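ok so i was messing around last nite and threw this chain in just to see what happens. nothing serious, just curious
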Amino acid sequence: MTAIDEDILSAARGSSNFGMLEEIEPLLAVYGAGAEATLYTDPNGALVKCRQFAEVLAEQLLRRTNTVMVSSKQVDRIGALESSGVLPEKPATRRRTSRKAVSV
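result:
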């Protein structure tokens, strides 16, 4: 488990949208609350936090479903979750398409 500064975690707990995720994975609460808090003041930073949130969420899904994968790329995590039936194919494909559009 990653060590998280107590002040940052305390601020994340205050988020009505993401604070409850601390029980599952503290990084989900931190990244989600951070994106929420900086959406209007630092939109690019908020996008980075959204990406970090998605990476941690995918890692959690892989762990909790015992889905095996050999790559460390997010696109491969999503593909492994699709292949194992954890994620339905259509929404996962949509996320990949959106990610590629943002990366251009």
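not much to say yet. The chain has a mean pLDDT of 87.
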